[in-house]
Design a protein that fits this description.
This protein is α+β, with helices and mostly antiparallel strands and 508 residues long. The chain folds into 3 domains: 175 residues, no CATH class; 269 residues, Cupin (Jelly Rolls, Sandwich), CATH 2.60.120.650; 36 residues, no CATH class. 33% of the residues lie in helices and 16% in strands. The chain is built from 20 helices and 18 strands. Helix 5 runs parallel beside helix 6.
């Protein structure tokens, strides 16, 4: 039986949306097309759909064009179909899923069958998946995933060297393949960054934070919290590489030395760059854990009563421009804070009762279907939020700033440049009951994360809280019930109105 490979290393279910037109090749360029083709948008023609490419963006490998350009082709021939033969009826995504069953040697052999299969078999995410499956202990990136695979594993087949020929296929049209390249090479549009509607505070007291933001479950950006951090002064690339040495950190499904990760991040041009996201960094390199302090606003963390049995709660985050996290809600109904030490991050947040456009969670919340990459979400769904009554909270969080992410909020984060950050999830009295409710859900074994003992975490946590802080849970339950009763209680004017209405009816 064939073993199905984890194509593209998908942590969540993804969807691809494509609807392309031809674009100018200069600043507004999207498509790589021939100047002689009729009815093409000129280089001086302005178009809202245009995008700016990164200065280092290469021309699209193998000559793939968006499907819309087919309508301007004199031959009206798509070599994608002729090269696939009877397989042309399959979607591009399904073709790639099938190719995901093959190893490197067989991909190389199949790429010589036709120009169309050459394009499909050289799709970089296929080779990325092969490298990640074989390189649990890390890899040395070499310009592309295919080159990385060849250099590391040297398959016996010589056909893999055909890439050095630089073959380009004419009249190959595919939205799916084109968008993968496009998302890897787009600059963030200015209109994606200009909205900044998050409250910003400096010198806020803890009581003010609790009353104005944590209690009502609203995000806020805090300034000045990192001023006394050693990490804020010391944590650059050279310092971290020297301090961490040969220690390996979690990068997607593999473990890598920082030096090797930076080698990858400097060269990588892909739509979903690998993100260094390690929950055990302070245990691996204790000095890193001592060079930052939890801001006073988040000092209460009730999961701490579990000691070493607590779920994962703190991470060092390192990534290049374009890396980040697609829309998600933080685990176990916790709240979080994220401090940027180097670089900057674009944040988009939606309240718990608003599901972001293009995001489709399963009824139980265990899975989320969303666009393949963060850039793709901005391309296809961001503009829709401008007409929503409940618009998202947005900001660019810069070095030295901290953002508070309340529990239950959907959020997306993308690095605008090479970035280093620390984030922690926490449980305070304000969201303790939410966490307990989450941990005791019937499907806790699929929802709870960051711990091996998912099913028993609720009982463990509740018992230790009751022993350590007697009466706390009962007090919070009583307070919640009183608040609900108060909200249902009619106001003075409502009572007066009802009284007058009753009297009027009676006299009549």
């Amino acid at each position: 039986m064939l073993k199905r490979k984890n194509f593209l290393y998908k942590p969540t279910k993804r969807r691809r949306k494509g609807n392309y037109k031809t674009f100018s090749k200069k600043k507004k360029f999207i498509s790589e097309t021939q100047e002689s083709k009729p009815h093409q948008i000129s280089e001086n023609e302005d178009t809202e759909e245009g995008f700016n490419l990164k200065t280092s963006a290469p021309s699209h490998s193998h000559g793939v064009q968006p499907l819309g350009n087919l309508f301007f082709s004199p031959s009206f021939n798509n070599s994608r179909n002729t090269g696939l033969g009877n397989l042309q009826t399959l979607s591009d995504e399904l073709v790639l899923e099938i190719l995901g069953f093959l190893d490197g040697t067989h991909l190389g052999i199949l790429s010589t069958v036709s120009k169309s299969l050459y394009v499909f078999c050289n799709h970089e995410p296929l080779w990325r998946n092969l490298v990640l499956e074989k390189s649990i202990d890390g890899f040395l990136y070499n310009g592309s995933w295919k080159n990385t695979y060849i250099n590391a594993y040297k398959p016996s087949s010589d056909v893999l060297s055909v890439e050095s020929m630089g073959l380009k296929v004419r009249d190959f049209y595919s939205d799916y393949l084109f968008q993968s390249w496009l998302c890897a090479n787009l600059e963030m549009k200015p209109e994606w960054l200009e909205r900044d509607n998050i409250p910003r505070r400096k010198g806020l007291s803890v009581d003010e934070f609790v009353e104005n933001f944590e209690e009502p479950n609203k995000p806020v950006l805090l300034e000045g919290c990192l001023d006394n951090w050693d990490a804020f002064e010391k944590w650059d690339r050279d310092y971290l590489v020297e301090a961490c040495g040969d220690v390996k950190f979690a990068v997607g499904p593999v473990e890598m030395k920082l030096e090797d990760y930076f080698r990858y991040s400097d060269q990588a041009r892909e739509e979903r760059p690998l993100y260094l996201f390690d929950p055990k960094f302070a245990e691996k390199v204790p000095a890193l854990g001592s060079e930052y302090q939890v801001p006073e606003y988040f000092s209460e963390d009730l999961f701490g009563v579990l000691g070493n049995e607590r779920p994962d709660y703190r991470w060092i985050i390192i990534g290049p421009a374009g890396s980040g996290s697609s829309f998600h809600i933080d685990p176990n109904s916790t709240s979080a804070w994220n401090a940027v030490i180097k670089g900057s991050k674009k944040w988009v947040l939606f309240p718990p009762d608003v599901v972001p456009p293009g995001v489709h969670p399963s009824p139980d919340g265990a899975e989320v279907a969303c666009p393949v990459s963060i850039i793709e979400w901005f391309m296809n769904f961001y503009n829709a939020t401008k007409t929503w009554k409940k618009k998202p909270i947005e900001c660019v969080c810069k070095a030295g700033e901290v953002i508070f992410v309340p529990n239950g909020w959907w959020h997306l984060v993308i690095n605008l440049e090479d970035s280093i950050a620390i984030t922690q999830n926490f449980v305070s009295r304000r969201n303790l009951l939410n966490v307990l409710d989450f941990l005791k859900r019937p499907n806790a074994n699929t929802l709870v994360s960051g711990t091996r003992d998912r099913v028993n975490l609720y009982d463990k946590f509740k018992n230790v809280i009751e022993a350590t802080f007697p009466g706390t849970i009962d007090g919070l339950v009583l307070k919640t019930e009183e608040k609900k009763a108060q909200q249902k209680k009619p106001s003075f004017w409502e009572l007066v109105t009802d009284s007058r209405a009753g009297a009027f009816k009676f006299s009549f």
